[in-house]
Write a structure and sequence with these properties.
This protein has 279 residues and is mainly α. The protein has a single domain (56-275), classed as MetI-like (MetI-like fold), CATH 1.10.3720. The protein has helices spanning 2-32, 36-39, 55-62, 65-96, 102-111, 117-129, 143-147, 154-165, 169-177, 182-190, 195-211, 214-219, 228-238, 243-275. It is globular, with a radius of gyration of 23 Å.
Length: 279
């Protein structure tokens, strides 16, 4: 009986926590289906009396959201590919190679994660502004400024390194005995056994890029380059009183993230379990 009561208490806490997390999303969806008249009612209703689905096409055509989505997909896809390549190679070197200063170099990389973005964004802007090959303003308002500085990600290196270190030493010894070189060992054994970790890296990188706001806000000037979060902020400033349109735009802006997480949640849980990052 005591164990049963304890299980009920745990499940009750989980249900309360789930409701508290889902309630803001439900309220956003609820608001996105209301018209101005219904939004003005007090107290607000928990479900629209007459759902106004026109909010979605109205919000979609109010600003160039198709261009924003295209920019974000292009930038996020390029960064995901670059991060997988650089993180995989770096984590492989930090895990299986023995060289002087390896631990110090890795700890230095980890320390950069503690530096907040506003600290270096001004110096980064000056650097990108003076780089040749972009345009009149250097790399500013260019895809290069949104992609190139983020092709390496320290947390992804850390995540993959922790996963690679979980490989049994017998696997490495067997590869060496069979004459397997570093490149063949990486592509024939390490990467095929790291699908869950690589999927997690791809998803985390995609989410971080999709939600990035401050960097593209500073580095872009035109609608033709802006990603979705910056475009959503400009849309909110223009439609400050149209809460239904604002929530509709927010719904279809986060929809790709929810879909991506829904399909990759199994790999994420498996990867976090293997790397010891759960909890």
């Amino acid at each position: 009986m005591k164990s049963l009561r304890r299980n009920w208490a745990v499940h009750l806490m989980l249900v309360v926590g789930a409701i508290s997390f889902l309630l803001p999303f439900y309220w956003m969806l609820n608001t996105s289906l209301k018209g101005p008249t219904e939004l003005a009612l007090s107290p607000p209703s928990w479900w629209p009396a007459m759902p106004r689905f026109e909010n979605y096409p109205d919000a979609w055509h109010a600003v160039p959201f198709p261009r924003y989505f295209l920019n974000t997909i292009l930038v996020a896809g390029s960064i995901v590919v670059g991060v997988v390549v650089t993180s995989g190679l770096s984590a492989f070197a930090f895990s299986f190679f023995r060289f002087r200063g390896r631990e110090g170099m890795f700890n230095t990389f980890l320390s950069t994660m503690m530096v907040p973005e506003p600290v270096y964004i001004i110096s980064s802007y000056i650097l990108l502004f003076n780089l040749p090959g972009g345009g009149r303003d250097g790399w500013i308002d260019n895809y290069s400024a949104l992609i190139v500085p983020w092709l390496a990600h320290v947390f992804s290196i850390f995540l993959l390194r922790q996963h690679f270190l979980s490989f049994p030493p017998d696997l490495v010894d067997a590869a060496v005995i069979d004459g397997c070189g570093p490149v063949r060992f990486l592509f024939s054994m390490v990467l095929p056994l790291s699908k869950a970790a690589l999927t997690t890296v791809c998803l985390f990188t995609f989410i971080n890029t999709w939600n990035s706001f401050l960097w593209p806000l500073v580095m872009t000037n035109s609608d033709s380059i802006r990603p979705i979060q910056v475009g959503l902020a400009f849309f909110a400033s223009e439609q400050g009183t149209e809460h239904g349109l604002m929530m509709a735009a927010a719904v279809f802006s986060i929809a790709p993230l929810l879909i991506a997480y829904f399909f990759a949640q199994k790999q994420i849980i498996e990867s976090l379990t293997h790397t010891g990052l759960k909890g």
